[in-house]
Specification:
By secondary structure, this protein is of the alpha+beta class. It has helices spanning 3-23, 55-64, 70-80, 96-102, 108-116, 197-203, 208-217, 304-307, 320-323, 416-422, 433-459, and strands spanning 32-34, 84-89, 131-136, 142-150, 160-169, 172-181, 183-192, 233-243, 246-247, 256-264, 267-275, 281-284, 289-293, 326-329, 335-337, 342-350, 354-360, 365-372, 374-375, 382-383, 388-391, 402-409, 412-414, 425-427. Helix 1 (3-23) packs parallel to helix 2 (55-64) and helix 1 (3-23) runs parallel beside helix 11 (433-459). The protein is globular and about 85 Å long. Bound molecules: zinc ion.
């Protein structure tokens, strides 16, 4: 299939997938595995698979999650003889016996093998957290054990994993270990905000790291600390590394957002990862406008910790217009970041402000960070957007730990969110516009499906 054909077929295929999701919300796990193929912009920079792996596969994968009738399953089981499969993760305190007991393996010879065999004993050496799957017969005798964990430190450790197998053949246990490549897999997730972003991402099976990433990518348009509303929705395509089809859980990045859309108070914001011809990757909206702006909307990173703190305003002056700033309640010690590049103009104490840092961004624009418990910069120092300049505290006139934040133009106070939304942003280079448009077109369908998933999730409550 040529990519031009692909482009014309994709929307129909995704529309079909969307109808399927809407019809069968219960039969789906929180993720649908994508065979989104033929496009160059994958977040990990791993070469995309060819277009031939694409459309039919998507439909099949989506539909195969519908469970078989129980009678069919039992019949199949009877045909195969009874095999039991279990999986778990190794713990620091594990011995061969405790691990096998947890996996319901009742087999003294297998325990002895795990202790003595030079290859198999590696399962319980080194780091815990190895993922283990076993199959046994009805009596609990080990038939096969497969463990997957990080590849040995070195050039391959970020891209490969170790697969350790113990198999019983002709009554004898044999071990083997090999190093195999992890594969990047694209998945969909969607949700509706009922109480908090993290509650919604939990329900969608999205990790905290990915949820924070989503919030950060959109942080020039949405201040997630202040602006989130019940009924807001998100949909995303993300890429995660897999070992034999299972999402990798050990010390590698937990995935990256490939494309996302967020509807906040009825306004739709989008972000698409795109690599230009120089190989430089960045997030853009559907119109090709860069997501990186000169200013971030919030001086605090969005995390489970900071999001759990309800906004508390100054008791007397409870609007930024009246008290000239925005207050963020957050635990003492939470890092404070500068919202744009600049130079430290003031770093020290001022009466009501306590420990305060003022950053001059250009001739007219300045930002102020007050009540800090700690200051990490000096006057005259150059700072970059996102750099930590201190930590949240309660110095000066503060009833509890919070950050007081101001944005000024020529000394006049402004709403920081409007400043961030309106600040300068680059667009996709003219030479890459056609490629970007094709990419944007191809993610439209999957994002719509993800959104349908998010809606059906909230309806089924
Ligand atoms: Zn304040």
């Amino acid at each position: 299939m040529k990519s031009s054909d692909l482009q014309s077929v994709l929307p129909q295929a995704w529309a079909r997938a969307g109808q399927f999701v809407a019809k069968h919300p219960r039969s789906l796990s929180s993720v649908v595995i994508l065979g989104l193929a033929g496009f160059g912009a994958t977040a990990f920079g791993i070469a995309p698979r060819g277009p031939e792996a694409s459309l039919l596969a998507q439909t099949l994968i989506t539909e195969s999650v519908e469970p078989m009738g129980i009678d069919v399953q039992l019949e199949r089981l009877a045909e195969q003889g009874l095999s039991l499969y279990r999986s778990d993760v190794t713990r620091t305190s594990d011995t061969a016996d405790s691990l096998l007991r947890r996996l319901n393996v009742d087999d003294a010879s297998a325990a002895a093998f795990l202790r003595q065999d030079p290859v198999a004993r590696k399962l319980l050496e080194g780091r815990s957290g190895k993922s283990v799957q076993v199959s046994t017969d009805a009596a609990g005798t080990l038939v096969e054990l497969v463990a997957r964990y990080a590849a040995p430190a070195g050039a391959q450790s970020g891209s490969h994993f170790t697969r350790l197998s113990v198999v019983r053949r002709d009554g004898k246990l044999r071990s083997s270990a090999e190093v195999a490549p992890m594969l990047a897999q694209q998945r969909l997730a969607g949700g509706t905000i009922q109480t908090s972003l993290f509650a919604a991402t939990d329900e969608a099976g999205v990790s905290d790291a990915l949820a924070s990433q989503l919030a950060e990518i959109l942080s020039t348009d949405i201040d997630f600390h202040r602006e989130l509303r019940k009924g807001d929705t998100f949909s995303m395509i993300y890429e995660t590394l897999t070992a034999d089809g299972e999402a990798v859980t050990w010390g590698v990045p937990s995935g990256r957002v490939v494309a996302a859309e967020f509807v906040n108070k009825g306004r739709r914001f989008s972000a698409l990862w795109f690599k230009d011809e120089q190989g430089k990757g960045a997030y853009y909206d559907f119109n090709g406008k860069s997501r990186s702006h000169s200013f971030l909307a919030s001086p605090l990173e969005f995390s489970r910790t900071t999001s759990g703190f309800a906004m508390r305003m100054h008791p007397i002056l409870n609007q930024w217009k009246q008290h000239n700033g925005v207050d963020y309640a957050a635990p003492r010690g939470t890092p404070v970041r500068v919202v744009g590049d600049g130079v430290v103009e003031f770093a020290g104490q001022q009466n009501g402000y306590g420990n305060i840092v003022q950053i001059k961004h250009d001739k007219d624009r300045a930002t102020v960070y007050a009540h800090l418990s700690r200051i990490d910069v000096e006057v005259g120092q150059r700072v970059e957007q996102g750099q930590h300049i201190g930590a949240v505290g309660a110095t000066g006139w503060a009833t509890g730990p919070h950050l007081h934040f101001e944005f000024k133009i020529g000394g006049v106070h402004q709403d920081p969110l409007l400043m961030a939304q309106g600040s300068e942003a680059a667009t996709v280079a003219p030479a890459a516009k056609a490629q970007f448009a094709q990419w944007a077109h191809s993610v439209r369908g999957p994002l719509d499906v993800a959104q349908t998933m998010g809606r059906s999730g909230s309806h089924s409550e």
